[in-house]
Amino acid sequence: MSTAVVTVVHGRHDHLARQRASLAASAVPPDHHVVVAVDDPVVARADWCSASVAGHPLGLPIAAARNRGAQEAVDRGADVLVFLDVDCLADPSLVESYADVVRDEPGTVWSGPVTYLDPPSAGGYDVRSLRTLDSPHPARPAPAIGARIRGADPDLFWSLSFACTVDAWQRTGGFCESYVGYGGEDTDFARLVVDAGLDLGWVGAARAFHQWHPVSRPPVEHVEDIVRNAEIYRRRWGTTPMLGWLEAFAERGLVRRDDAGCWRLVV
């Protein structure tokens, strides 16, 4: 089976370079690394960049960029699609492990545990010793290497690292491109997976390592995106995602909930 890793990127050029190095060090490297530049002319000019997506007035069109990358991978003849966030480094066994589990159980969209790394030393992260840093995020399932979990909670799905067959991808219809900017498209995609009659699972051997970068808790710089995307999700699925963030914004006086249960920006 031919495997493609799909990565969308806007900035984060050093992170992308380290990710490419980690994939090159894989026990079984991917047949294709499909890099999609999102409003990023520097990456778009690189000879290894596969596609480019323009920016959007409301924010980065990440959902559309992932769909564009998946189509590029399909056009190249890939059978297995591995989506890897630009911040993630691949364990040497990640590509092979995803390919194996997708081949064994093609009716499941599989995710692997992700470790959030501390800031790197002056020399950067050593992609050859990532396993010594393994400490998966406690908010998500983290099966041991060699173990699998099936019937996973859609609300715990995230798009940092996951894989599926091309057939499974096409059955979902891909990410909903109504989502622009930060938040919401991950959980929406998980609902599409379930609606398509597919399962969600976690595979312990496909481990990834998220490179450090500054973050805000809650992500106040994305409050407009989160409010807008939460309402898109509510209209599509009848529930509101990202409640923890919305409630934290409300405590800061940034948003409010109206009489109809919709979250609104306080202006």
Automatic annotation (TrEMBL):
This is Glycosyltransferase family 2 protein. Belongs to the glycosyltransferase 2 family. One of its GO terms (molecular function) is glycosyltransferase activity. Signal peptide: none annotated. InterPro entries: Galactosyl_T_C, Nucleotide-diphossugar_trans. Pathway: Cell wall biogenesis; cell wall polysaccharide biosynthesis. It comes from Nocardioides zhouii. Keywords: Glycosyltransferase, Transferase. Residues 161-203 form the Galactosyltransferase C-terminal domain.
